[in-house]
Design goal:
Strand content: 15-25%
Mean pLDDT: 95
CATH topology of the largest domain: Glycosyltransferase
Number of domains: 3
CATH class of the largest domain: Mainly Alpha
Structural class: alpha+beta
Low-confidence stretches: none
Number of helices: 14
Distance between the termini: 50 Å
Helix content: 25-40%
CATH architecture of the largest domain: Alpha/alpha barrel
Length: about 650
């Protein structure tokens, strides 16, 4: 979830009000509408089903309105709260009164399920009631505090969007329970880790919603207590105290939630040591452990690369070594990439550098949107960068998207990120307006400097780099600064202010350009040239050595079996002298820009065996073939389960 730092003393930029920006047409409007029309109702059906998820049924049994046993996952409560966030945004943005009434009924149900002492996690409530051996706070992997954290954020958002206190009162009662628990842990010295620590961000949201310093103090205590955990693990980032962290390690979702929560805390209190840790962790991620698509957390299961050699510590869904970025077995859990966006946004609030929004944009447009099908109803849990023709081993998750996966944390997390995406369009500071995600939109702007106007963004971005900014309804034309984000990939472009042209070169790329002397009576034209380009990886990324990927603007492209006439994509080689051209294309009725051009294909001798581990190379020369590349987010949306590749070997003459 996004976070409102309007009154946070250490935040340098703040969001606009939640209702200030609307996507008006084009890419992000289509994504929002698809999410609202298909994903949100589909997820609601999944959560309502007793046979599929059993999540709502668990609440009904706890409330005494149904009979039965707990079913589904330990973290189903928290996943439902994430869906509620997506539904709240959808309902208020679209005026869906039926959905709002449904949310009210869910809030009432959750309140009836809550215990008098404030405790609220359905598996443990039913376990204690039925004496089946399950009890509260007895297993750190039971996700109770994870459920609490998402309750806190959802309830805070419900208050912000609807003005209603009902959900917030439930959350405050649960927070008081957590407060008693943590104060006792501080006295006894028996603190436990809370895996997937959503509660740091959640407690900060309670503080910002109520301005009650009690919840700020509880957030600080929660982070402090993790430093007192005995026999901690790299998997949970608690083997050493937070302020001693040097590398980003362990479970990627847990890491990203942890550092996002600490960034939230740093917006309220000036702590140079925490800030230093955040900067170290970010640099380790962005410089050495981030996929081209924005995915993160490359490793399925293994031993921590940083633990004692003789004492192996299990890690899963994890950050591995620097540059350890496999393609076929890339894990890249969707929740991790959603978490990295939340972390990056909070880092931007502390220090508004273009790098953070470059990565937010890369992640949102590529790996996040790849995690959901174009029809909005099927999902990837992990996000590979290559699908092979056949595998001689079985991966944990399916190689195609599924309507329902047992670990259903990712779909509602993604749904709330897309529902809230318009909040990433702009941020404000004392001196002006900062541009974040580009997309056709209308925004009502009021700044501290006194300027007040409506800003309309007309653009076909990310398929076209022309962006027109139009000012209207100018209530106060006080001067302000407009901070234009120049993407890191830019090599040429310009900004036009009336008759004046400001050239854009690689020297301006990856930074903000502040415009001050513009007129509200004239449009501002921003043009980012978007030729297709070849991208290479660091020499220590073993799986991309001698290979390149094709990008255009902020989009990563891939090739799938239907777009190449060869028997296998393994024989395809990029011609670095070829210029790929954008063409209009549709998949499932969704218009997009594909890229077309010629590639080389490797000639294979008649004795070549695709099953041999090693064999003598008999060079048979290169021929040429015509292929199509599609945006990575659109892959696995056609009636085939063939190959897909982002990285391809290169050849040139």
């Amino acid at each position: 979830m996004l976070t409102d730092t309007t009154h946070s003393p250490c935040a340098k930029v703040n969001p606009l009000p939640w209702d200030a920006v609307d996507w008006t047409e084009g890419f992000w409007k289509d994504a929002f509408d698809n999410n609202a029309s298909h994903t949100v109702p589909h997820l609601r059906k999944m959560f309502e089903s007793k046979e599929i998820s059993h999540v709502l049924e668990n609440f009904r049994i706890c409330a005494g309105e149904s009979d039965g046993n707990f079913g589904g996952t330990d973290f189903g409560d928290g996943d439902f709260y994430k869906w509620m966030e997506a539904a709240m945004y959808t309902a208020v943005k679209t005026g869906d009164q039926e959905l709002l009434e449904g949310l009210d009924s869910y809030v009432d149900l959750i309140g009836r399920a809550q215990l008098p002492d404030g405790y609220l996690s359905t598996k443990q409530i039913l376990g204690e009631r039925q004496s089946n051996g399950v009890s509260r706070m007895s297993d750190i992997n039971a996700f109770e505090v994870y459920n609490f954290g998402h309750l806190f954020t959802a309830a805070s958002l419900y208050k912000r969007l609807t003005g209603k206190d009902s959900f917030l009162q439930i959350a405050l009662k649960a927070a008081a329970y957590l407060e008693n628990l943590y104060e006792e842990a501080l006295r006894s010295g028996a603190a436990q880790t809370a895996v997937c620590p959503s509660h740091y961000m959640g407690l900060m949201e309670l503080y910002r919603s109520t301005r009650d310093v009690r919840w700020l103090n509880l957030a600080r205590l929660s982070i402090h207590l993790r430093d007192t955990v005995q026999d901690g693990l790299d998997d949970n980032q608690d083997r050493i105290p937070v302020k001693e962290h040097e590398k980003i390690i362990g479970h990627a979702v847990r890491a990203n939630y942890l550092y996002a929560g600490i960034a939230d805390l740093c917006a309220e209190i000036d702590d140079p040591e925490y800030r230093s840790v955040l900067d170290k962790m970010w640099r380790n991620l962005a410089d050495q452990k981030l996929y081209l698509t924005g995915g993160c957390g490359a490793i399925y299961n293994g031993a921590s690369p940083y633990g004692n050699f003789f004492v192996h510590q299990l890690v899963h869904q994890a950050y591995g070594y620097e540059y350890q970025l496999p393609n076929i077995t890339a894990y890249n859990e969707t929740c991790a990439s959603v978490g990295s966006v939340m972390w990056a946004y909070r880092m931007f609030q502390l220090d508004p550098r273009a790098e953070y929004f470059d990565i937010i944009e890369r992640t949102m447009l590529n790996v996040n949107l790849a995690a959901v099908s174009l029809d909005g109803c099927r999902f990837f849990y992990e996000n590979m960068l290559r699908r092979a023709k056949k595998l001689d081993f079985e991966l944990i998750w399916p190689l195609t998207r599924s309507e329902y996966i047992l670990s259903y944390c990712c779909p509602p997390n993604l749904a709330r990120a897309i529902a809230e995406s318009s909040e990433y369009a702009y941020c404000t500071s004392a001196d002006g307006l900062w541009m974040g995600l580009y997309g056709a939109s209308a925004a009502k702007i009021k700044l501290e400097c006194g300027a007040a106007f409506t800003l309309t963004q007309d653009t076909a971005y990310p398929y076209d780099g022309m962006i027109r900014l139009h000012f209207s309804d100018v209530e106060n034309d006080a001067p302000c600064r407009l901070h234009v984000r120049v993407p890191h990939w830019l090599e040429s472009g310009e900004i036009r202010l009336g008759d004046r042209k400001i050239p854009l070169t690689p020297a301006e790329a990856g930074a903000y350009l502040a415009l001050e002397d513009f007129s509200y009576q004239e449009d501002i034209l921003i043009h980012f040239d978007m030729p297709a380009r070849y991208t290479i990886g660091h020499s220590l990324i073993e799986e991309t050595s001698g290979q390149a990927a094709v990008e255009r603007g902020p989009l990563v492209y891939c090739v799938e079996t239907p777009d190449c006439p060869l028997d296998t994509l393994d024989d395809l080689m990029l011609d670095l002298n070829e210029t790929f051209k954008p063409v209009d294309y549709e998949i499932q009725g969704r218009p997009m820009k594909a890229l077309e051009g010629d590639c080389y294909c490797m000639g294979r001798s008649s004795d070549y065996s695709r099953d041999a581990l090693y064999q003598t190379l008999h060079y048979e020369g290169l021929s040429r073939t015509h292929i199509r590349l599609i945006p990575y987010f659109a892959w696995d949306n056609r009636d085939h389960a063939g190959e897909m590749r982002i990285w391809l070997p290169v050849a040139w003459r």
